[in-house]
Amino acid sequence: MLYKVVRAIVKRFYHTRFKVTVIGEERIPDSGPVLICSNHMSEFDPPLVAVSTKREMSFFAKSELFKIPVLGNLIGRLNAIPVDRGKGDRQALKKSVEALKEGNMLLIFPEGSRTKDGKLQDLQQGASFIAVKGGAKIVPAAIKGSYNRQKGITLVFGRPIDVNGLVEEGKNRKDVTLKLKEEINNLLLS
User: Fold this and answer.
1) Which CATH number does the domain housing residue 129 bear?
2) Distance separating alpha carbons of residues 171 and 163, to the nearest angstrom
3) Number of domains observed in the structure of the chain
4) pLDDT per position in the chain (190 positions), as tens?
5) What is the model's pTM?
């Protein structure tokens, strides 16, 4: 209930404050485990993706945010999974795989942090690991533009990547990660 209320408020704010365009939302499967993987430009990105989908989702949030009294409590109640960046956080990986195995949707920014120059950075293999272990399809996404009223921000969802099919073809996590990076780059250029 809290998730739906907060999403409605944030959605209204985003569409009032920014010029938001969403393309391809229908490409997100209506059920089953889904991992949305997007480029990451701004602290505004996680809420943008969350308000642009019909399904409730979990998401990674840096553990430092959970130490902020009100914010930490709120994001915890909104399905955030704390992650210690740069440390190979096994607990965060375990929780994310569990969320997917329960048929939920999870948002990850596989670059690991926000880009400083707007270009897609190399992706970490954690998203591929989580998708394989959680039996999830990966939906690539690209955030383009600027968070202002004049230029506007566009969120494009790509076609789902069948990770299990790639694994059956003999592809490994590195191959899946390279495929994901290629798909996000294609969305950024479209």
Assistant:
1) 3.40.1130.10
2) 9
3) 1
4) 899 999 999 999 998 999 999 999 999 999 999 999 999 999 999 999 999 999 999 998 888 999 998 999 999 899 999 988 766 778 988 999 999 999 999 999 998 888 887 788 899 888 999 999 999 999 999 999 999 888 899 999 999 999 988 888 888 889 999 999 999 999 999 8
5) 0.91
